Amino acid sequence: MASSPNRHHRRCYSNPNPPQPQPALLVFSGGTAFNGVVEDLKNFTTRVAHVLPVSDDGGSTAEIVRVLGGPAVGDIRSRCLRLSDQSTAEALAVRNLLGHRLPLEPLQAKSEWYSIVEGDHVLWKGVSKPYRETIRSFLVYFQNQILCRSEGSFCFSNGSFQWVELEL
Known about the structure:
Blueprint: H1 5-13, E1 25-28, H2 35-44, E2 48-51, H3 59-68, H4 74-83, H5 89-99, H6 106-118, H7 129-149, H8 162-167
Parallel strand pairs: 1-2
Helix pairs in contact: 2-4
């Protein structure tokens, strides 16, 4: 007994439980206040667009803008870290590196910065050589810009790696 084309189509291609599309969200936010919510949103949907201001004026962002100019990217850095991959040990190592803040004490901060730029710091553990050399090249470039523009007055205290993430 031959089946009709419509009957065959329904039997082969219909899915009684089609996957439900994830909701799409557009989030307007700023600062670190919303970062905790970002972690929860990742469990709800991956279809989220974030609109962030470039008016951050705190911490290392203010220092970078003072010395190098440009938009304030601290909030963007923070949000990118929250949205970054965490599925492998290396992804977590890179996230830890880029999420690290230097000490508050200026001399300790500067010393730790140089250790990171040189590739000697413990934060590099778990980061493969290709990633290490790519990230270090941006750190070296940033260091060069500091030396050219800051006349020795750049303050590394409580600094973060926002300059690297923008370039990556």
